[in-house]
Amino acid sequence: MILPMKDIEAIKAKLHRYIDNTSLIRELSSPKISEVNNSEEYRKLLIKNFVKIGELSKENSAILEAYYFPLMESAKELDREDIEIIRSFSKALLNAYKLDYLDIPMVYQQALLLLDKVESSDSETDRILALDNVMPVAYAMICTTNRMYPVNDVSCSYQKVGLEAAERLLKYLDHDKFKTLDDTSKELVLINARYIRVVSEIDGVPCSKEQNELNLQRMKDALALAEDPFYLEQLPSYNWDYHIFRTLEYISSFTDQNNMRGFDEESVQFINACAKRLVQMFDSNPEYYESIDNAKIIELYACRNAYLAHELTLDEYKDKLKDIYRVHSKEKHTNDSLVVLYAPVEYILVIDKDNLKKEDIDFLNDFYDHAIDFMHKTPKKNSLVFLLFFITVILKNFIEIPGGLDFETMCLSMIAAIHPPTYVHTLSVADLSLCIAQHVFKRNPELFEGMPFFDKNRDIKEQASALQHYVYHAALCHDFGKLMIAETILTYGRNLLDSEFSLVRSHPSAGAYLLKGIKSTEKYADIAIGHHKWYNDQGGYPKDFMLENSPYRTVIEIVTCADCLDAATDTVGRSYKDGISLDEYFEELKEESGTRYAPYLYDLLIDPDIRKQIEELITKGREDNYHKVFDILKTHESK
User: Is 60 exceeded by the pLDDT of residue 234?
Assistant: First the structure.
C-alpha cells in the first residue's frame, strides 16, 4: 500500500481526529459539575452530552472504516510509511510514560497485527519497532485484566505475549547482533532490557523463589549494561544515568504491597541497597530526577525496603508512611499525585486488622475520606489504569471500622466519582428492585422461603422489613464489579472488541469476589454474581453459576429484571442510543418469560397499579437520583 505523502499525512490527521474524539467522549460522559448550577441542569447537560457522544461515535466509526481497518486488514506487506502511520496512532492512544491510556484494547490489537505484518520484513528496525510497540500495551492489558479478581488466565495470556516480545528483544543484546543495529534500535533494545520488569509478574499470582530470582537477575543484567564498555562505546549518546535510575526504581518496587511477591531475606537486602542508591542518585540532581518521578515515591521505596530489611521498626515505618501521606495529600489532585495512595496502601497491609489501635483507626478514617475525594477530583479524561489499580487494592484490602465508613458506602462513593451515570443506574435498580420485591412478597411470599436473611422462627409474612432491607442493599451492590472495568464502560466511541466483551462478562464475578471479602456485604455476593444469569440457567453469565443452587434465587430474579428494565428505558449514561419504552420492555419480558425472566414477573408488572409505580420510578424517580448524584459531586467540588 504505497501512498503519496500528502495522503499519508491526511490519514494521520484523520486517525488523530479519532483520538481527539475519544478524549472528548471521556469528558462528555462525566462533565464537570462546575458547568451547571443545579441538578436539573446537570441532567439536561448529560442528555445533551450523550447526543454529542452519539455524533462523535458515528464519526469515529467512519474514520476507522475508511482509514484504519483498510491498513490493518491489508494482505499486502506494509511499507515504512504504513508502519509509521500505525505506530503514530498507537503512541497517541497509549503513552506508558505519561499515563495516557486512551484505548488499550484497540492498541493491543493493532500492536499484534503490526508485529505480524513485519515478521517477513528484511528490516530488523521494523521488527524491533513492532516488538517495542507490543511491550507497553501488553503491560497495560495486564493491568486492566489483573483487577478482575480472582486472577484468571486472561492476565497470564497478556503476560506471555509481553514476555515473548521482551525476550526476542533481549536477543539483540548479543554483541554481533547489536553492532548491526541503527541507534534507534539499539536504544529500544536497551530500554526493554529494563522494561521487561513490568511484564515479569502479575499481582495476585504467587511468585516462586525461582521466578523471583529470575526477575531480579534480569534487572541486575540491565544494571550491568551501564558498566559494560561494549555498550557504552556502541551508544555513547544514550542516557545511561536515566537507564540506571529507572532500573534501580524497578528493583526498588519489587517489594511493593508489603513484599507481596515474597522475596527472600538475601534478595530484600539487595533491593534495599538499590533503594538507597536510588535515593543518592535523586539527591545528586533533584531538579532533573523530579521531572522523572515524584520525590515522595522515592522516599516510599526507601522506607519500605528499610523496614523489610529490618532497619526500621514497624512503628517507625508506619510513622514515615503517615508523614508521606499527610504531606502529599495536601497537594493538587493530578494523575502525578497518585503517590498519595501508595503510602496508605502500604500502611493498611502492615497493620493488625484484628487489633486496630486508635492511631490506625484515625488514619484509616482520614484516608478513606480523602481517597473518595481524590477519586472525585483527579482528572480522568485520559487514563484510568493507575487510578483503578489503587481502587482495586483499596477495596481488596478494605477494613471496616465500627462507626466508620462501611464497604458498601465506599464502593458507591467510588462509582459516583468514576462514572456518575452508573451511580444513577445503581440507585434506580435498587428502587425498582424494592418495588418489585414488595409486590412479589404480597402475592407470593412462598417464593422467598429459605432465604437466609429471614428468621426461621418467625412467620415469613411478618418479616417484610427484613426483605426490604436485604433487597434494596443487595441491588445497590449488584454492579460493584464495574469499578474494575471502568475503561470499558467509558468506551462509547466504537463497538466493543471481543476482549472487552469478555471483561464485561467478568464484572459479576469480580463484584462477588469483593463482596465476599467483607463481613457486612458477603450476603450480597450471590446477587452480584447472578444478576446476568437467565432464569432457565441456559443463558447469561457466568456459566459456572447456577441460579437453581442459590438460596437467594428469587431476589436475583427480581434484581435481574430491575437491572434490565432500567438499562433498557434509560437514555442517559448507559448508552448514547435512545432507550425503549416501558411497553417495549414489557413485550420483551413477555417473550422471554420462562427463559431469560422468571414467569411470575410479567403478570405482576402489567398490573395497572404496579405499572404506574414503575413508570414513576423510571421518570421522576430517576430524576431524583440525578439530584442525588449532583449533590454528591457538588459536595466534593466545594471541599
Answer: yes
